[in-house]
Design goal:
Layout: H1 3-12, E1 14-18, E2 24-27, H2 29-35, H3 39-42, H4 57-68, E3 73-80, E4 86-97, E5 104-113, H5 115-129, H6 139-156, E6 160-168, H7 170-177, H8 179-196, E7 202-207, E8 210-215, H9 221-236, E9 239-241, E10 244-246, E11 249-257, H10 264-280, E12 286-288, H11 295-313, E13 316-325, E14 331-342, E15 346-348, H12 354-357, H13 362-383, E16 390-393, H14 396-399, H15 404-413, E17 423-428, H16 429-432, H17 436-448, E18 452-458, H18 465-470, E19 475-478, H19 480-484, H20 490-505, E20 509-512, H21 518-527, E21 531-532, H22 546-552, H23 557-563
Parallel strand pairs: 11-12, 14-16, 16-17, 17-18, 18-19, 19-20, 20-21
Antiparallel strand pairs: 1-2, 1-5, 3-4, 4-5, 6-8, 6-11, 7-8, 9-10, 13-14, 13-21, 14-15
Helix pairs in contact: 5-20, 7-8, 8-9, 13-15
Length: about 575
Amino acid sequence: MDDNYRAAVDAAAIFSETDLSGRITYVNEQFCSISGYSREELLGANHRILNSGLHDSAFFYGMWCALVAGKVWKGEICNRAKDGSLYWVDSTMVPLIDPASGRVRKYVSIRFDVTEKRQLLHTLQWRVGHDVLTGLPNRAYLSDLLQQALEFSRSEDKPLAVCMLDLDGFKAVNDGYGHASGDLLLVEVAARLKGILRGGDAVARLSGDEFVLILRHVQAPQALHAALERVLNAIAAPYVIREREVSVSASIGVTLFPVDNEDADTLVRHADQALYVAKQSGRNRYHLFDVSLDREVKATHQTVARVRQALISGELCLHYQPKVNMRTGQVLGFEALLRWQHPLKGLVTPADFLPLVERTDLIVDIGEWVIAQAMAQMQQWQVAGHAWPVSVNIAARHFQRGDFVERLERLLARHPAVAPHMLDLEIVESVAIENIQRVSQCLEACQALGVQFSLDDFGTGYSSLSYLKRLRTRTIKIDKSFVRDILHDHDDLALTQAVISLAQAFGRQVVAEGLETVEHGLVMMDLGCDIAQGYGIARPMPPEAVIEWEANYVQPPQWRAVAG
């Protein structure tokens, strides 16, 4: 190789040359540095000196077949350094052909260190399946664990208990001693739960002080009672948190499969309903879900009936939160957010009534009403000279209907003045991956109508490269839980950067949710995400306030200076 070319490659990459038998004939300083071997140790040695043991023989056989045939081979390889540590390289191996004979005379390898990228992706994959505070599986991973447990119970014809656990008195600890002490308490609770579970059992943290237990060793009622009493006693034992003695207890809701012969999500919901009864009954106890009739079912029916009446009576309304390009100051569109104008309670947010409604077909009626209202609002804005697209959230039960596409087409036909691409449907990541094939087909059918799609709450599910490839949504919305903490949490900052890089690599637009401050915006722009929504820009507002807000909106001077 020409010395000038070799100098350029040496400066840019990990470089080596190998003869036809696989012996190393040249390495540059970067090769020595990353492998930990000196040049003298490497020259004349076979490349197997770096074998990590993580790749099987078929991997190397395919590589050498390509090289011997005179083809370029590309791939990522894990090597083992002299000190035993592992590192990953993105490798391109090129056979050099002798012009006179037409035969391969040697091989050159150009590598780039991708260890940090691999570690970051691994961290991201772990984070989306685990609770960072306690290390327990989170809601996303719980679904897999419970599905596996159900399959085992069906095949072995053994009962399975699904338990929802909530701490009694946790709020008092948080309020009295601070959230840091509350976090330490949760860590200790998680450790105690892991310590008393038997092989095959599992525990996950959903959120706050809510945990789910999967108990397999419950062949008889006595065994279930003994297991739950162990849990209650373990939680109720005193804690020492920051040199203070703290006492809490637990309430547990339990449902038993196959007596409660439902799917994983329904079992968790039934355990949650039983938990409510346990708390109402005095706490520090457990309650077994009654499949035939449970008091919580009545409360659910009452809530659903009241929300249905609210829909009929015109008490539901939409507020709109803007999405802004922070760099240019341009308002790009709005997200429609459901509100309930309750005659007694005032404006009620969906978190207070939708969770129960989402389990019924009423959510379909509400979802279609939201789409219709958003389309009508866009038409009004168009008449006023504003072509603002609007995104709406689609619930899992609504989106998974077999006739979703046909019903959506009818809704679009009622508003022919509004181009379908102005409507953006947002589905959460966890819903999208529950049935990837069905969701992909539905996405394509809707996109054929012209409708856009966004993947909401990205980073809270699996965030897999394969899912991004198959779910061809236009936009990815980074979950607000990551954005909120990027100013002081290096992990969240790194994960946010990784998510942005993944999205950009697949040509997706990225929107940051929950942007709270100007400083958050500066960090997001620095990471390559210019579009955001959140209280740092504007709170959701009624439609009559939108035009005036947009006319008076001016991006913060700090953002303008960056864009400058």
